[in-house]
Amino acid sequence: MEVINAIGRRKAAVARVILRDGKGNVTINKRELKEYFPNPQLQYIVEQPLNLLQATGKYDIQSNLDGGGSKGQAEALSMGIARALVKVDPENKPTLRANGLLTRDPRRVERKKPGQPKARKKFQFSKR
Known about the structure:
By secondary structure, the chain is α+β, with helices and mostly antiparallel strands. It has helices at 33-36, 40-52, 70-88, 93-98, and strands spanning 4-10, 13-21, 26-28, 31-32, 59-66.
Protein backbone atom coordinates (compact mmCIF):
# COMPACT_ATOMS: atom_id res chain seq x y z
CA MET A 1 0.00 0.00 0.00
CA GLU A 2 1.27 3.46 -0.86
CA VAL A 3 1.35 6.38 1.57
CA ILE A 4 -2.00 8.18 1.91
CA ASN A 5 -2.39 11.85 2.87
CA ALA A 6 -5.54 13.50 4.26
CA ILE A 7 -6.51 16.70 6.06
CA GLY A 8 -8.97 17.13 8.93
CA ARG A 9 -10.17 20.44 10.36
CA ARG A 10 -12.15 21.55 13.41
CA LYS A 11 -12.51 25.14 14.66
CA ALA A 12 -8.99 26.60 14.23
CA ALA A 13 -7.22 23.21 14.33
CA VAL A 14 -5.73 21.59 11.21
CA ALA A 15 -4.47 17.99 11.13
CA ARG A 16 -2.34 16.72 8.25
CA VAL A 17 -2.44 12.91 8.38
CA ILE A 18 -0.06 10.42 6.73
CA LEU A 19 -1.33 6.82 6.78
CA ARG A 20 0.82 3.78 5.89
CA ASP A 21 0.84 0.07 6.66
CA GLY A 22 2.32 -0.73 10.04
CA LYS A 23 1.73 -1.92 13.58
CA GLY A 24 -0.64 0.74 14.89
CA ASN A 25 1.77 3.48 15.98
CA VAL A 26 0.19 6.94 16.20
CA THR A 27 2.72 9.80 16.13
CA ILE A 28 1.58 13.41 16.52
CA ASN A 29 4.15 16.21 16.05
CA LYS A 30 6.93 13.62 16.62
CA ARG A 31 5.38 12.51 19.95
CA GLU A 32 3.37 9.41 20.89
CA LEU A 33 -0.44 9.61 21.14
CA LYS A 34 -0.51 9.03 24.92
CA GLU A 35 2.16 11.69 25.43
CA TYR A 36 0.46 14.30 23.20
CA PHE A 37 -3.08 13.61 24.48
CA PRO A 38 -2.76 12.39 28.10
CA ASN A 39 -6.56 12.62 28.54
CA PRO A 40 -8.18 9.22 27.79
CA GLN A 41 -11.29 10.91 26.33
CA LEU A 42 -9.18 12.67 23.68
CA GLN A 43 -7.33 9.41 22.95
CA TYR A 44 -10.72 7.74 22.40
CA ILE A 45 -11.80 10.52 19.99
CA VAL A 46 -8.60 10.08 17.96
CA GLU A 47 -8.88 6.26 17.82
CA GLN A 48 -12.64 6.18 17.11
CA PRO A 49 -12.41 5.74 13.29
CA LEU A 50 -9.91 2.89 13.72
CA ASN A 51 -12.05 1.19 16.40
CA LEU A 52 -15.18 1.36 14.23
CA LEU A 53 -13.45 -0.43 11.35
CA GLN A 54 -11.46 -2.86 13.59
CA ALA A 55 -8.25 -1.46 12.04
CA THR A 56 -6.46 -0.58 15.28
CA GLY A 57 -3.19 -2.45 14.63
CA LYS A 58 -3.09 -2.28 10.82
CA TYR A 59 -1.80 1.23 10.07
CA ASP A 60 0.89 3.60 11.28
CA ILE A 61 -0.39 7.16 11.52
CA GLN A 62 1.87 10.18 11.45
CA SER A 63 0.29 13.60 11.91
CA ASN A 64 1.14 17.27 12.08
CA LEU A 65 -1.31 19.23 14.25
CA ASP A 66 -1.52 23.01 14.27
CA GLY A 67 -3.81 25.60 15.83
CA GLY A 68 -6.80 25.37 18.13
CA GLY A 69 -7.15 23.72 21.52
CA SER A 70 -6.71 20.13 22.57
CA LYS A 71 -10.32 19.01 21.88
CA GLY A 72 -10.40 20.72 18.48
CA GLN A 73 -7.08 19.12 17.59
CA ALA A 74 -8.30 15.67 18.63
CA GLU A 75 -11.47 16.02 16.53
CA ALA A 76 -9.50 17.36 13.54
CA LEU A 77 -7.15 14.38 13.78
CA SER A 78 -10.10 11.98 13.99
CA MET A 79 -11.58 13.49 10.82
CA GLY A 80 -8.22 13.28 9.02
CA ILE A 81 -7.83 9.61 9.95
CA ALA A 82 -11.39 8.88 8.79
CA ARG A 83 -10.76 10.59 5.42
CA ALA A 84 -7.53 8.62 4.97
CA LEU A 85 -9.34 5.34 5.73
CA VAL A 86 -11.92 6.17 3.06
CA LYS A 87 -9.07 6.67 0.55
CA VAL A 88 -7.71 3.23 1.52
CA ASP A 89 -11.09 1.50 1.00
CA PRO A 90 -14.18 3.41 -0.27
CA GLU A 91 -16.42 0.75 1.33
CA ASN A 92 -15.54 2.25 4.74
CA LYS A 93 -17.37 5.47 3.89
CA PRO A 94 -20.97 4.52 4.94
CA THR A 95 -19.82 3.28 8.36
CA LEU A 96 -17.76 6.41 9.07
CA ARG A 97 -20.46 8.72 7.66
CA ALA A 98 -23.16 7.10 9.86
CA ASN A 99 -21.07 7.84 12.96
CA GLY A 100 -20.48 11.47 11.92
CA LEU A 101 -16.72 11.19 11.44
CA LEU A 102 -16.64 12.56 7.88
CA THR A 103 -18.82 15.62 8.53
CA ARG A 104 -16.93 18.89 9.02
CA ASP A 105 -18.30 20.65 12.11
CA PRO A 106 -18.91 24.22 10.86
CA ARG A 107 -19.26 25.84 14.30
CA ARG A 108 -16.75 28.58 15.03
CA VAL A 109 -16.33 31.22 17.73
CA GLU A 110 -18.70 34.13 17.16
CA ARG A 111 -17.01 37.50 16.78
CA LYS A 112 -17.20 40.17 19.47
CA LYS A 113 -19.50 43.08 18.57
CA PRO A 114 -18.61 46.74 19.26
CA GLY A 115 -20.34 48.29 22.26
CA GLN A 116 -20.67 44.91 23.98
CA PRO A 117 -18.34 43.07 26.38
CA LYS A 118 -18.63 39.75 24.47
CA ALA A 119 -20.33 38.36 21.36
CA ARG A 120 -23.87 38.39 22.83
CA LYS A 121 -23.54 39.72 26.37
CA LYS A 122 -24.63 43.34 26.84
CA PHE A 123 -23.52 45.93 29.35
CA GLN A 124 -25.99 46.40 32.22
CA PHE A 125 -28.88 48.70 31.23
CA SER A 126 -29.44 51.70 33.47
CA LYS A 127 -32.78 53.47 33.22
CA ARG A 128 -31.70 56.41 35.40
